[in-house]
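Entry:
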Amino acid sequence: MTGASTSLTRIKLGKYLVLRKWASALNIQDVSSEFDRRNSALIHFLNNVDIVKSKDDLILAAKQHCVNLFTNYEGLKPINKVTFPKPRLQGAIGKKVVIKSKVGDKEIAEGLLLQLVGNQAEVQVSASENDISHVRKKFYSKQVYLR
């Protein structure tokens, strides 16, 4: 677990917010993403929620429960046969990662993985180990690896 909570909220009709609030002790900036489409918001939420080390069927049941809650709250028809592909880096959110060049021959940065956004990963990168200022950057997820 990352010490964070992820929530999906409808701000107003047709506007959704996915927010990841980190534990204050971790000193990581909270991240949020706004969506105009509820499907996009739900998929983003499911791809960025914490994954505990557990059996796959338990994780799939938890995700199905989230879908059921969302469809019930939104007044949609139940979705029974849902497939949940596991994004490659979902278990790495909140952990140290290294970013490699597009060719993969050298390391170009390192930092903490904050969230997955489509085929990109948002990373909190610091200029050096002693630098306390952090910058958020997006990289293609194929460039991001666990440290």
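The mean pLDDT is 86.
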